[in-house]
């Protein structure tokens, strides 16, 4: 999935995530650490759903980092000289 994202093969990245979920449904036990990694991969594609899943996995903090948002604001701010 990481390689697909970097190569902008978004459709193949989503397909790989769907294949993973289809396989995970068949597991008797689903390790929390594996589900957390899946949610991290999902977050760029479906941020709202990923946030909900992240909280349901027991996390209180958000997946989104506000330092990234601040950096975007700084980069997009134009100051007349």
Automatic annotation (TrEMBL):
Example of a GO cellular component annotation carried by this entry: cytosol
Domain Methionyl/Valyl/Leucyl/Isoleucyl-tRNA synthetase anticodon-binding residue range list: 1-64
Protein name, UniProt field: leucine--tRNA ligase
Keywords annotated in UniProt: Aminoacyl-tRNA synthetase, ATP-binding, Ligase, Nucleotide-binding, Protein biosynthesis
GO terms assigned for molecular function: ATP binding; leucine-tRNA ligase activity
Enzymatic reactions: tRNA(Leu) + L-leucine + ATP = L-leucyl-tRNA(Leu) + AMP + diphosphate
Any GO BP: leucyl-tRNA aminoacylation
Family that this chain belongs to: Belongs to the class-I aminoacyl-tRNA synthetase family.
Enzymatic class: ligase
Domain of life, per lineage: Eukaryota
EC code(s) of this entry: 6.1.1.4
InterPro entries per record: Leu-tRNA-ligase (IPR002302), M/V/L/I-tRNA-synth_anticd-bd (IPR013155), tRNAsynth_Ia_anticodon-bd (IPR009080)
SUPFAM superfamilies: Anticodon-binding domain of a subclass of class I aminoacyl-tRNA synthetases
């Amino acid at each position: 999935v990481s390689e697909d994202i970097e190569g902008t093969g978004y459709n193949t990245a989503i397909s790989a995530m769907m294949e993973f979920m289809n396989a995970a449904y068949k597991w008797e036990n689903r390790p929390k650490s594996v589900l957390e990694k899946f949610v991290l991969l999902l977050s760029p594609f479906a941020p709202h759903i990923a946030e909900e899943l992240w909280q349901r996995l027991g996390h209180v903090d958000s997946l989104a980092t506000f330092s990234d948002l601040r950096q975007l604001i700084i980069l997009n701010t134009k100051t007349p000289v």
